[in-house]
Write a structure and sequence with these properties.
Layout: H1 11-92, H2 97-106, H3 111-114, H4 119-124, H5 132-144
Length: about 140
């Protein structure tokens, strides 16, 4: 039973009740609008946070792809430098053709068999990576062949 539909007998009380109900209705509508606005703002903030998170993840993916591409190129350059080093050892006669081909297949360092240092000395001295200049020279030499 909806008690707001039941009218009071006294007209002045009924008018006051109607005014009070009208004010209550207006206040409820205002509160409902504010709640909807707050919900909308929360939803928009969540969507914005989600977009920002996706943007950051996309940037990370792009960085990882670039990093992987760089690593692949770097590895290829190191392989080329190793091949060139092996070829030089082969040309100088430090490696036989069989050793050269074997090491080329295994991508081992050319100095492993020819170097007479002990394992301890080898462990102490870090392996020097090929410089950019060396890699460029190796590429040119390879192109000449």
């Amino acid at each position: 039973i909806d008690t707001s539909l039941i009218e009071l007998k006294e007209k002045s009380q009924e008018k006051a009740r109607q005014d009070k109900m009208k004010a209550q209705r207006i206040e409820n509508e205002k509160r409902d609008r504010e709640r909807k606005d707050e919900q909308l703002q929360r939803r928009l903030r969540k969507e914005e946070q989600k977009r920002e998170k996706e943007r950051i993840e996309a940037i990370k993916r792009r960085k990882n792809l670039k990093k992987k591409k760089f690593e692949v190129k770097f590895e290829e350059w190191n392989d080329l430098a190793n091949e060139e080093r092996l070829y030089k050892h082969f040309k100088k006669g430090k490696l036989s053709k069989k050793q050269y081909e074997q090491k080329l297949m295994n991508f081992e360092k050319p100095s492993e068999e020819t170097d007479e240092r002990s394992a301890e000395e080898k462990a102490k001295k870090p392996v020097k990576k090929a410089s950019k200049k060396t890699m460029i020279r190796a590429r040119k030499m390879r192109a000449r062949r």
